[in-house]
Design a protein that fits this description.
By secondary structure, this protein is α+β, with helices and mostly antiparallel strands. Helix content is about 40%, strand content about 25%.
């Protein structure tokens, strides 16, 4: 992620992902963005079915698809791939 390029994180909110905790994933991602002062720098949005049902909670960073087995797994990945690199650029 360069300073000139904005990053978009999209979380699937289709029925399967919703049941697996997508709402909690969005809430936790949003909390982390606010905590680290990144809520205006990283776009966080929901998307209807990403067509990978059954794999876990599906989300993506820009166009890179990701799947997490749990809310905590998603948060850990988000911290590693979004928070740490963004904090290193500040």
């Amino acid at each position: 992620m360069s300073k000139d390029q904005s990053t978009t994180v999209t979380v699937c909110v289709g029925s399967s992902c919703h049941i697996k905790g997508a709402r909690n994933v969005i809430m936790r991602f949003n909390e982390l963005l606010k905590k680290h002062g990144l809520d205006g720098k990283i776009e966080l949005k929901g998307s209807f079915c990403m067509e990978r049902c059954g794999e876990g909670v599906n989300w993506q960073i820009d166009e890179k698809p990701l799947t997490s087995s749990s809310v905590e797994d998603a948060v850990k990945s988000f911290e590693e791939m979004i928070i740490k690199p963004a904090k290193g650029q500040m």
